[in-house]
Every structure is written in structure tokens, then in C-alpha cells.
Amino acid sequence: MLATRSAILAALVGVAVAAAAIQPTSFVLVGDSTTANGTEPNSGGWGNGFCGSTITGNIASLVAGTPCINTAHDGATTGSFVADGFFNVSLAAIKGEVAKGRRTLVTIQFGHNDMKVAPPESMGANMTVMVKQIRALGGEPVLVTSLTRRSFNANGTIQDALGPWANETILISQQQNTHLLDLHAASIKYVETIGPDAAHRLNRLPDDNTHLNVNGTTVFGRMLADLINQSFPGQLPVIPNPPLTFNISHGIASF
Questions:
Q1: Name one Pfam family in it (predicted).
Q2: Considering just the CA atoms, what is the radius of gyration of the chain in Å?
Q3: What is the CATH number of domain 32-250?
Q4: Whole-angstrom Cα distance, residue 28 to residue 134?
């Protein structure tokens, strides 16, 4: 009995030490509609599944009470996000969280709309400025490659028009020495494995292969959480979801 009590005590101490090692952390999300919390047509990203919300039935990827401020905006490019004042909102949120003494991670994901207006290098230049401004405020930029569209070729592979913009994000991450979450590659691998029918069940509307419904934001919010947890092992207040993580990592449809 004494040995059992000792083992239990040691385990409890270990949990307490691990919890104490996690610095109070906040998240600010920057990006377009594939990150944003929209529920209207032509909107809806992974943000709700990552931060948690009533839309997902409060399914969250983060410990309750963790600030997770989604400043992403439908239709945004890296250029319009700044020009229209949305990045000022992001910077104010970052400044506020840093002022509270919280580690503030800032995800940046663009590409879906940038590809419609300019070459990848233009997006990369804008991202570089964003990274520097975030760091100047004490935030930690985390670059995220574009969530794939769920448009398939006849052979079941993804029609990947976003590749050059995902590659540009990777390049800027290397140049600026930031953490990188390759959501583009991970999401392509997953949807190709589960196949078109299951992938389209995650669509915001039946013919919308870009935006996400509640199931979609739950799946890709978890995928993002698993990627960021891998990039910052043992450092972040990420809630485990073993069944969903297992399905994602093994290419099994959850919905």
C-alpha cells in the first residue's frame, strides 16, 4: 500500500510540475476566411475548432480560459488585411496579451486570396513585414501554410493550385526563423486518404470546397492543434483528443 501511495504521489507531483512548466499562453490568429470564425456562405475556417466556441458545441483544442483571439477576416490578402485595418486589430490584441505577461503566439495563414491578385513573392514580402512587427511587440509569429481546398482530380488526388503560396510561406519561415505549421501538406494528405465523399462532408456548403462546416472546423482545428503541439512540445495548453488525433493521423474519416 505504501508503495502504491508513493507512486500516486509521485505521479501527482509530476503532473503539477508539468502544469507549472507551461507558461501562461495566449493565441492570436491572423489570416483569411480559412482561419476565420465565419458561419455565413463563403466563410468558415479552422479557428473555432482550435479556440473552441458554442458553434462547435464548445469542443476546443485549448485548455478552458486560454485567450484565443481570432482576428482573421473573410476575403483578406496579406495586403488588404493591413490596408483595411485588420492587422491593427491583431497588433492591439498582441500588445494587450504581452502586457499581461503572457506568452503570445500569433499564427499567420494566407494564400487563398493572395493567389488571386499577386505572385507568391508579394505575399512573402508582406508576411515578412508582419513577422517583424509581431516580434517588435514581443509576440511569437508562427507561420501556417494554406489549408487545402477539397477539389479533387479524377484519380483522387487534390487539384493543388495553392502549392506555390504554401512554398512561399515555408521560405519566409526559413528566412525569418519562425516556427512553421505545414497545414497545407497535412490537410492534403488527410483528405486524399479519406477520399472525396468524406472530404466533402466537411464543406461549409455542398459545393464549397474551401470553407468548413462544424465538423470541418473540428477536424482541422484539431489538426492545427496537433501540429502546433508538435512544434512546441510540452510547452502549450493544448487539450489532447486521442480519438480524433488517431483518426487524423491514420487517414480515417470522423464524420
A1: Lipase_GDSL_2
A2: 19
A3: 3.40.50.1110
A4: 11
Q: What percent of the chain has pLDDT over 70?
A: 88
Tell me the pLDDT tens digit for each residue of 81-140.
999 999 999 999 999 999 999 999 999 999 999 999 999 999 999 999 999 999 999 999
pLDDT confidence band for 52 (50 / 70 / 90): confident
Predicted confidence (pLDDT) at residue 5 exceeds the cutoff of 50: no
Distance from C-alpha of 106 to C-alpha of 110, rounded to nearest angstrom? 13
Q: Measured between alpha carbons, how far is 139 from 118 in angstroms, rounded to an integer?
A: 28
Q: What pLDDT was estimated at residue 23?
A: 87
Q: Is residue 144 a contact partner of residue 105, using CB atoms and an 8 Å limit?
A: no
> What is the residue type of 103?
R
Alpha-carbon distance 194 to 154, whole Å?
A: 15
Question: How do the domains of the chain map onto residue ranges?
Answer: 32-250
pTM of the entire structure?
Answer: 0.89
pLDDT tier for residue 10 given thresholds of 50, 70 and 90: very low
Cell numbers for 249? 493521423
Q: How far is C-alpha 200 from the chain's CA centre?
A: 20
